[in-house]
Structure formats: C-alpha cells, structure tokens
Design goal:
about 375 residues, 7-stranded antiparallel sheet, 3-stranded antiparallel sheet, globular
C-alpha cells in the first residue's frame, strides 16, 4: 500500500537525479541511485558523484570547529572579536559578545538581509558594521536561521590557524576521513570535479553544470579570480561554508557513521566522545516566542545540528512521520534538496539528495514530498 508521501511525490515531476544511502555504525545497508548527473551528456548519477549538498555543509563545518576546540585553538564561548581583530556586535545590543556557540546555533542575531555570496575581494568587516544586517528587535540568544553566520565562523577559523578555509577543512575533516570532497571545488582534484552532479530547476542547470570553470569561487568585482589575494579572515564567504561542500551521498554516509561511532570511523578518531555529546545536545528549542521557526521547519537546533521532531504547536518537522527522535541536517539550494539524518536509538542513518525538486509541501511535514520519500525506506 502506497504511503501518503509516495502518492504526493508521484503526482509531482520526477527529480533529475536522486541518491539514497542508508547506513549503520558498521557500513552501508542499502544504496539507491536513479536519474542523471548531467542531462546534456546523459551521464547516470552514482552514489560516488559529488554534489553541492547545501546546508549540510554547516554540520561538517561544526566538526572542523570542534577539532580546533579540542586543540585549544578555538573557544566556543569566547568573544570572536579577539580573533577577528575588530569588534563584532549587533549595534542594538552592543554589550553582548558574539561567540562561536551563538554563531553555530543561529542565535547571533545576524540576519540574511544581505547576500551571503560575496565577491572574492569583499571585506566582510564593512558588511557586518552595517546595522541593517542585524536584528534590531531580538538580541543574541534569539534563534533565526541565518546563512551569514557561517562566513563569520570561517573567518574566525582562518584567523585562528592562518589557513585558507577550504584547505583547513580538507586537513581537519575531509582528508582524515578519506573523502573526495571540497568546499567550492578549489581543493578537489580533476577526477572528482569530472563527476560533478549538475543541479537543476525546471530542467535548467542552476549550479555546477561547468564545475571545471576557470574560477572556482565568486570572482572579484572586476571579474578577476586570483586566489593568491586571499588574506586570513578578511572574507570568510569565499569558499561557501554555509552551503558549498561538494560531496557524494556515500561521503555523507561516512560523516553519519562518524557521528554514530562516537567520533571514530574505521579505526580513525576525529572527535572525542565529549565533542560528539556537544553535537547531540540541543541549544535551542522553540517555546512559542524565542525564535523564528521558518514556518515550522526549525524547532530544535544545536551546534549546526537539527533535532526532529518537536512536539509543539507550530512545528512541522516530523520528516520521517514516525515521531522517532533524529538529528542531522537538511539542505536546500538551487533546486536541490538533501539530508543527513541519524536515529541514534537504533544506530542507523540515511543520507540523500535529489536535484530539480518541486517546492511543494509534504504529506506530514514542512519538508517536500521528495524528501519525505527519500527519508523513509520504500515499501
């Protein structure tokens, strides 16, 4: 018998590509790949093809941050102004320091009133000194999902280490986990780039149709693309920490297995059990007035981790439709939808993405029918 989510999904256009990898602590338990990585060439999508996974990128950034916290190079509760080299404040709440814990949990009081995709030569300090980009009514502590938090986090990471964000993430997370992945293509090799999944909306390419383009980042305002001009912490948006991770569904499953394994995967320890406990702890839960839920999509959140479901009026975050607690992150950009979700109680998880997904409400959540169908196993 077809579920409501399947019936609803069947009435909508099929995604161009969809991939789903289920896993437990030991490895993959099922894999499914359907459709095309590229319409023009007719190349079929595979579980090993990298795609821009959108906001799941934030969860992977949090892993990098916690590695630096364990090395005592970052402090979750320190005023980030000290590392940035200039005072970061919401002008309406100038006495309240902004910390990594607030930035990672979308409680900094920053907003997305300005485009977070900045040109290569942008100075982030100038942008953040504009009162317009801050919430003048709600100070730090109020939840508002804001992509701009993560370029700030990337800038802090760069200032703490002196390393370019994409290379730093490769050293801290991607390479130790043996992942063919990168932020904004600059640090991926040619073979990985050649397998890029093109993202579509209405069968029109929106991202990565030409992944091997001359400039792997947003060019400078004069059109130039000289990455040698990079300076630590000046512009944390260059490598899209908020959504620019290119990774396969199989790679996402390895990230999930790391979390299920308490910070360890295939004999390699990346995070301590204490850091994993931090990731598994909600820092904010909607109480009716303490945040913006994005129409019921976000109701419980931690250090770049979403918690599902929240049994409260106004919350529509039961992606799986079974009421079981899960943690992870979803992604949405340019017509793509993605997800990495763990059922800690059962020791299982699922990673998925689909391209050219219609923006329609699901049968039982604020997620789309395609996400609901990919989250739950087919019957």
């Amino acid at each position: 018998m077809l579920t409501a989510a399947l019936l609803l999904a069947a009435s909508l256009p099929e995604p161009v590509a969809s991939v789903r990898v289920a896993f437990d602590r030991r490895g993959e338990t099922s894999v499914r790949a359907e459709g095309l990585a590229d319409i023009v060439t007719g190349r079929a999508v595979t579980p090993d093809d990298p795609v821009r996974v959108a906001s799941i990128s934030k969860l992977v950034v949090a892993i990098g941050v916690l590695r630096l916290v364990e090395q005592r190079r970052l402090d979750l509760d320190a005023d980030v102004s000290a590392l940035l080299g200039w005072r970061l404040r919401n002008p309406a709440f100038a006495d309240t320091p902004i910390t990594l814990r607030l930035l990672l949990s979308h409680r900094s009081s920053l907003t997305d009133k300005i485009d977070y995709v900045l040109p290569l030569d942008a100075e982030m300090r100038t942008i953040l000194e504009d009162p317009h980009v801050w919430d003048a009514e709600h100070g730090p502590g109020y939840f508002r999902y804001t992509n701009f938090n993560f370029p700030v986090i990337a800038a802090v990471m760069e200032r703490a280490t002196g390393e370019r964000f994409d290379r730093l993430m490769d050293r801290l997370v991607l390479r130790p986990m043996r992942l063919d992945a990168c932020y904004n293509w600059a640090s991926c090799d040619a073979k990985t780039i050649a397998r890029a999944v093109t993202i579509y909306r209405d069968r029109t390419a929106t991202k990565d149709g030409d992944a091997a383009s001359a400039c792997p980042v947003t060019p400078a305002r004069d059109g130039s693309c000289d990455l040698a001009a990079w300076r630590p912490g000046t512009n944390g948006a260059i490598f899209a920490p908020q959504g620019g991770l290119r990774i396969s569904a199989r790679g996402l499953a390895r990230i999930g297995r790391l979390l299920l394994g308490g910070g360890k995967i295939d004999g390699v320890r990346l995070l301590s059990p204490a850091s994993i406990r931090l990731l598994e702890t909600p820092l904010w839960t909607f109480n009716g007035s303490n945040g913006d839920t994005s129409n019921g999509f976000y109701c419980s959140y931690g250090l770049a981790v979403t918690f599902l479901p929240t049994h409260r009026q106004g919350c529509q975050d039961d992606l799986f439709g079974d009421g079981r607690p899960r943690l992870g992150h979803g992604g949405e950009a340019y017509g793509l939808r993605s997800g990495l979700w763990l059922d800690r109680g059962r020791g299982t998880g699922v990673a998925f993405f689909a391209t050219d997904v219609a923006d329609s409400p699901g049968a039982h959540s604020a997620f789309t029918p395609v996400e609901e169908e990919l989250a739950a196993p087919r019957r």
